[in-house]
Amino acid sequence: MALIEWREEYSTGISGVDFEHQELIALVNSVYEMLGDSSSKTNIINCLGDIYGSISSHFALEERWMEQNDYDDYKAHREDHERLLDDIGDITDDVETSHELNEEQLRERLSNWFLNHFKTHDARLHQFETSKKHT
Ligand SMILES: [Fe+2]
Ligand SMILES: [Fe+2]
C-alpha cells in the first residue's frame, strides 16, 4: 500500500494545484517504495531532490494563486511553505549523513511533512475558493 493515498476530499478545486498535489503524492510514495525495496541511499537522495524541486515550483504556483485571489491568509501560508522547504532540506541532509537509515522514522517524517500542511493550509484554500464562488 502507498504511504499516502489521494482522496477526493483533498481536492482544492484549483485544477493546477490539485494536479501538482497528486504528482507530489506520487513522488513521496516512490520514496516510500524505495525504502521497502532497500534501494540505495543515492536513489533515495535523488528522489528527495526531485521532491524539493517539484515542491518549490508548486509553492510558487500556490503563492501566485493566493496573490491573484487576494487570499486572506497569504502570509501564514507562505511562511509554512518556507518552513516546509527547510524541513525537506533537513530530511535530505539527515539521510545523507546517516550511517544507517532509520526507515520507519523517515516514512513518518515524510508523511507528516506532506500531510500536515496539506490538511490545514491547503485545505483552507479549498474553503476560500468555495466561499468565493458563493458570494
Ligand atoms: Fe500545496
Ligand atoms: Fe500550500
Secondary structure topology:
Blueprint: H1 15-36, H2 41-68, H3 74-97, H4 103-133
Helix pairs in contact: 1-2, 1-4, 2-3, 3-4
Description:
The protein has a single domain, classed as Four Helix Bundle (Hemerythrin (Met), subunit A). Helix 1 (15-36) runs antiparallel to helix 2, helix 2 (41-68) packs antiparallel against helix 3 and helix 3 runs antiparallel to helix 4 (103-133). It is built from four helices and no strands. It is an all-alpha fold and 135 residues long. The protein binds fe (ii) ion (2 copies). One fe (ii) ion binds next to helix 2.
Compose a concise summary of this entry:
The protein has one domain: Four Helix Bundle (Hemerythrin (Met), subunit A) (Up-down Bundle).
- Overall number of strands: 0
> What shape does the CA trace take?
elongated
Q: Compute the gyration radius: what is it?
A: 16 Å
**CATH architecture, please?**
Up-down Bundle
Attached small molecules: fe (ii) ion
Distance between the termini: 41 Å
Structural class: mainly alpha
Uncertain parts: none
Assembly state: single chain
The count of helical stretches stands at 4
Report strand %: under 5%
Question: How can the largest sheet be summarized?
Answer: none
CATH class: Mainly Alpha
- The residue-averaged pLDDT reads 92
- Helix-strand pattern, N to C? HHHH
The CATH topology annotation reads as Four Helix Bundle (Hemerythrin (Met), subunit A)
- Please tell me the total number of domains: 1
CATH superfamily: Hemerythrin-like
DSSP helix fraction: over 70%
